[in-house]
Amino acid sequence: PGWVRRLFLCRATRRAPSMLPRRLLCGILYSTISVISEGGGTLKISACIVSYGGADEVIRAAESVLRHTAAPLTLYLVDNASPDGAGETLAAHPWPENVTVLRLPENLGFGAGHNKVLPLLDSDYHFVLNPDIFVESDVLGGLCGWLEEHPEAVMATPRLTFPDGHEQVLPKRKPGVLGLAARQGVPGLKRFGDHYAMLDEDLSRPTPIEFCTGSFFCMRTAVFKAIGGFDEKYFMYVEDADITQKARRKGLVYYLPQFTACHAWHRAPQKSLKPFLQQLKSMGRYFCKWGFRL
């Protein structure tokens, strides 16, 4: 397929990390990948990881992306004023020249942290990655290549698995009250949860979806900028459902099971009250903005 051909060309013409510019901006980690297009030009890809604590996990995620991305890659990391000193650890880590770290003075939240790279982006494709992801193949290059061959699509997410290899069941349809309740373990609502996750559909092939997880997605940078990135009024939770709806006004959003990444998936809302209340607040904002549905 075309994307494999382009990645081969990228590998053949790959530049050394030392040839890439290093940009240190108080602490954001941003990423630029070059991919050869069908017309022979170079496509640029950007990526961003936002962290709040857990420097070791962030380093593991970043290094896996650096190791397995065939095309030249520059990675930006944004630390949201981690109280455990993760920002300092990330800044002191011996990154290659194509990695930059940005440390924010306060915790702005997930979406606002990612939006810090908006003014810096000059790429063709932008990736939003969680700090608890891990790749063992060139998933970034694959997603970029697929989108390059499908101009009707503006956003895509890969198949995600737990560290033990089991597939994660993630929402893929617009959020509704019953589907959200089923995700929180409310008994008697399994069929609504299954519908929310599109388990009643064939997900073995590229499929248009209505909800793209914020754990790992790729979006055309022009679209990411046009929609203003994330809605910063969501501190955390449901902001991925919101940005998906904004993206769908520009084109199709796809689930691409032919590309796989590992996601540790730390589910804080089920472990303590404060994150759960924050999730309820975000759900309320989402329904007020996009309409209530059961």
How much helix is in the residues? 25-40%
Report the structural category. Answer: alpha/beta
Q: What's the count of strands? A: 10
Give the number of helices. 10
The run of helices and strands is HEEHEHEHEEHEHHEEHHEH
- Shape field: globular
The biggest beta sheet reads:
10 strands, mixed
From the N-terminal CA to the C-terminal CA, the straight-line distance is 41 Å
What's the alpha carbon Rg, rounded to whole Å? 18 Å
Uncertain stretches:
1-34
Tell me what portion of residues adopts beta-strand conformation.
15-25%
Overall pLDDT score: 84
Structure write-up:
By secondary structure, the chain is an alpha/beta fold. It has helices spanning 2-12, 55-68, 86-92, 110-115, 139-149, 177-183, 190-196, 221-226, 239-248, 273-290; strands at residues 30-36, 42-51, 75-79, 99-103, 125-129, 133-134, 153-161, 207-208, 216-220, 252-263. Strands 1, 2, 3, 4, 5, 6, 7, 8, 9 and 10 form a ten-stranded mixed beta sheet that branches. Strand 3 (75-79), helix 3 (86-92) and strand 4 (99-103) form a beta-alpha-beta unit. The chain starts with a helix and ends with a helix. The model is unreliable at 1-34 (pLDDT under 50).
